[in-house]
Design a protein that fits this description.
binds zinc ion, 14 strands, binds nicotinamide-adenine-dinucleotide, single chain, alpha/beta, 15 helices, Single alpha-helices involved in coiled-coils or other helix-helix interfaces, Rossmann fold, 17% strand, 3 domains, 430 residues, binds L-histidinol, 5-stranded parallel beta sheet, 6-stranded parallel beta sheet
């Protein structure tokens, strides 16, 4: 346990540092080499890299309709019903986010419009290295479907049998996704960005992933004319603010539910109560032993943090400095603190709002900014799947109204052709 007030500001910064990722330079070189391999050898590279990283010999990259149907037939009704419930809630929340178009007359005869259109081709990356994530299919696929994106491409690494989990395929089917490729890691991002014989390129790439995936997204977004990306969504993280009134078992379960994602996940507890921190530490130990992924969670908890503050106001400052992907509030009157919390991807209010609710089924999106990017990056939503553009139409009266000002401004900038484009028209109106 670290007492926040006894640390220098430098020590406070170090305490809130994210776990070190693989050496940045070697990571970026490895990813650049994979992107180059895909650029040169296209499908052959994808098949080769699937063998190297996923341990499978693929003959086809695209899953056939028959293979998808065959896999879905093995799924229990209970799993299908759970996926459907989550799908409906995500749909409801994202449908409510549809933005308003704007049409306004800014000067007499000058009409300006703001319109929204679904992005034509979107690439959805579904992580699958350590655990297949059908919930991520729902988060990305439902949102793309609600936005009305005409082409939706799904890439995910094949399992050892050379297929994808039936749950992933069922979720994809609900979201009207039938272009599904057995392709993971940086090579999947490169394929969706550059195009190969099997996978036509897309306009924007979405989805979380490990450090290779995240680095690849950043690299392809810098290719001139390359795809846009959603955000750098890396290893999961959670910060819990809790006071003496919190249930230590609840708090421990929220910390562990992020820790079990991967050894580079981070779980942070900030509290003004020594007793609560002590009880949570004990609960973490007890619960760890019951987890299927105990070893991963244990390693991740090694860079977990237990931070003691003098009061909840100071805990809020710590959270704002850290900028967590998920922020859980388990203290008295949690709602009263909402306006003071400036930098969190998604906030879970009160004891009955576990992080798992947002991960799976409440309706909010679980693709969220990590590494502190919450301070300037939004959680994923419908707007990310839409492009915004403007339309304008000036009548003769409109051009007469604003033409002189345009000509004066063009003069000021020394751009004669701009001035002429107005002057010619105004002359024609005389
Ligand atoms: N922030 C979010 O919204 C969010 C949501 C869900 C999951 N996540 C995170 O996504 C991540 C998923 O990671 P994952 O590994 O399970 O799956 P993944 O699909 O992201 O990565 C697996 C792929 O990584 C590639 N790879 C593995 N080792 C490699 C190496 N040495 N060199 C080059 N490529 C290599 C392989 O191609 C493999 O198929 C986790 O960190 C999890 O916390 C984040
Ligand atoms: N917590 C993850 C986002 O950081 C999302 C997820 C998927 N499945 C379970 N959890
Ligand atoms: Zn999770």
């Amino acid at each position: 346990m670290q007492n926040w007030n006894q640390l220098t500001s430098q020590e406070q910064v170090s305490l809130l540092a994210r776990p070190a990722l693989a050496d940045n330079q070697s990571l970026s070189q490895a990813v650049a080499a994979i992107i180059e391999q895909v650029a040169e050898h296209a499908d052959d590279a994808l098949i080769d890299l699937a063998k190297r990283f996923d341990g499978v010999e693929l003959t086809e990259l695209r899953l056939s309709k028959a293979a998808i149907e065959q896999a879905i037939a093995t799924l229990s009704n209970e799993r299908k019903a759970a996926i459907e419930l989550a799908y409906q809630n995500i749909r409801t929340f994202h449908q409510a986010q549809r933005p308003q178009d704007v049409r306004i007359e800014t000067s007499p005869g000058v009409i300006c419009e703001l319109k929204h259109q679904a992005i034509a081709a979107v690439g959805l990356y579904i992580p699958g290295g350590t655990a297949p994530l059908p919930s991520t299919v729902l988060m990305l696929g439902t949102t793309a479907q609600v936005a009305g994106c005409p082409r939706k491409v799904l890439c995910s690494p094949p399992n050892k049998q050379g297929v994808l989990a039936a749950e992933i395929l069922y979720a994809a089917t609900l979201c009207d996704i039938d272009e599904i490729y057995l392709c993971g890691g940086a090579q999947a991002i490169a394929a969706m960005a550059l195009g190969t014989q099997s996978i036509a390129r897309v306009d924007k790439i979405f989805g979380p992933g490990n450090s290779y995936v995240t680095e690849a997204k950043q690299q392809v977004s810098r290719i001139p004319g390359g795809p846009a990306i959603d955000m750098p969504a890396g290893p999961s993280e959670v910060l819990v603010i809790a006071d003496q009134s919190a249930n230590p078992d609840f708090v421990a379960s929220d910390l562990l539910s992020q820790a079990e994602h991967g050894i580079d996940s981070q779980a942070v507890l900030v509290s003004d109560s020594v007793d609560l921190i002590t009880a949570v530490k004990q609960a973490v130990e007890q619960q760890l032993s019951r987890l299927g992924r105990a070893e991963i969670a244990r390693q991740s908890m090694q860079h977990g943090r237990y931070i003691l503050t003098q009061d909840i106001a100071e805990a809020v400052e710590v959270s704002n400095q850290y900028g967590p992907e998920h922020l859980i509030l388990q203290m008295n009157n949690p709602r009263s603190w909402l306006d003071k919390l400036t930098n969190a991807g998604s906030i879970f209010v009160g004891p009955w709002s576990p992080e798992s609710a947002g991960d799976y089924a409440s309706g909010t999106n679980h693709v969220l900014p990590t590494y502190g990017y919450a301070r300037n990056t939004s959680s994923l939503g419908l707007l990310d799947f839409l492009r915004r553009y403007t339309v304008q139409e000036l009548s003769q009266e409109g051009l007469r109204q604003i033409g002189p000002a345009i000509m004066t401004l063009a003069d000021a900038e020394g751009l004669d052709a701009h001035k002429q484009a107005v002057a010619l028209r105004l002359d024609a109106l005389k």
